[in-house]
């Protein structure tokens, strides 16, 4: 029910009921919309002296000339109505959700033999719209799946029964290559065609299980009737569905429909990441920026994002999980703040995305201006570190073909290689090629030494490898009681995935990001250092083995020569006096004869 407007002097006449209030300035321009459980109490809080309003809010209050209200049945209804009015009018003092994109949809047309095609224009009477999709790629993946499984026409012909009976059309190339069954010539009944459409609708809604059950039943039925070619046909369709589903990030099949929201903020803006989970898989991920107007509380910003993003992506999930507790309950919004389990992991994943988006925005706007530490600050944000990682150490193993296992540690200070701090390690306690055990050994040796010498620990430890190598390094830190005191990550080479201990899913930093390039540089330097060391060890071992072939030259003498001269070339260039002083006259004579025969060969 619409209530007549009030002047600012009449705010105390407002009803003690839920609703929305609208503030207008002297030009009759709507400048703010708010919601309230009690209009009387909420609006009064703006005008009562000593209510502790901030500077921005006081500025708004000075502009108010007229108040208009709308009563509703509940606070949740007020929340929805407030959202609709803000979307339509964009009042200057309301939270602004900065997202100027138009998103793609897939439309199922209302016509004989319906079509499915992409569009950015919503014309309700044209058909049923599915989406929006967060990206064109995501939309095309679904469309490609549907067209790969079902024979749905792509032409724009008017396939009314009359025109088909009058033989108005001829089948096209799509029919001849098997993508269409020729309804234009009456080769497919509309009832059969609509069965495919029904299954396509389930897929468009994210319910792949129904379509999978259908094709699995048909496959088993055909196989039971020994119609193996037909069974293979259904198996191919089932495989397409399985392949598509495997590309989605599977969370937990027990988690059906869920909306995940995580917020981070600064003085001017808030950044909210949204994950939509359907049947145990993340099917939509979207991050938005909200412009603060009146120093709004984080819970208010988060609530605004929840309502707008759920509306934008047509979400009807029964449960919403968030990273900030919202104490107030809203009928129609089932909001939880998980503290453990898979849902907590989802919140952490969403929060990582929100923090990354925030940092990218700050870099793009030029707000992070300190060039010396810009990359380190970005890396700190990307990895959610408490301190800037100005001291990074990275470990790598090398045991090519299982021989001479060694490891390396490289050190980067302020984002630059600190070559004097590099370390080589011969593996001492592990027999054979065992990367995991080797990693545990060298990480343990490194930080045991630092602790004994009372030297500072790094701000970030990087392990060249995936979950296995990372877990092995964590064992060493736990044994030294420093796990949790130093951040540690693993970086897997193939997809440049970043793993944190205990996290089921990796994070992916933008491949163009400066912070990822720094991590890659650190990782590649550790790998280069390890490979070079391994190559030298093999070379020296081969050299020592050759020297032991010389008469009267044993292992101890070979090692002495190896340590002093480093190579056969330098032994050749050495004088007889120099060799004699090192190993004696008799052994020197044998070495010289051996070298002469070797040159002659």
From TrEMBL:
The keyword DNA repair applies. InterPro entries: GIY-YIG_endonuc, GIY-YIG_endonuc_sf, GIY-YIG_UvrC_Cho, RuvA_2-like, UVR_dom_sf, UvrABC_protein_C, UvrC, UvrC_RNase_H_dom. Residues 333-477 form the UvrC family homology region profile domain. It is found in: Cytoplasm. Keywords: Cytoplasm, DNA damage, DNA excision, DNA repair, Excision nuclease, SOS response. The keyword DNA repair applies. Residues 16-95 form the GIY-YIG domain. The UvrABC repair system catalyzes the recognition and processing of DNA lesions. UvrC both incises the 5' and 3' sides of the lesion. The N-terminal half is responsible for the 3' incision and the C-terminal half is responsible for the 5' incision. Belongs to the UvrC family. Interacts with UvrB in an incision complex. HAMAP family: UvrC. This is UvrABC system protein C.
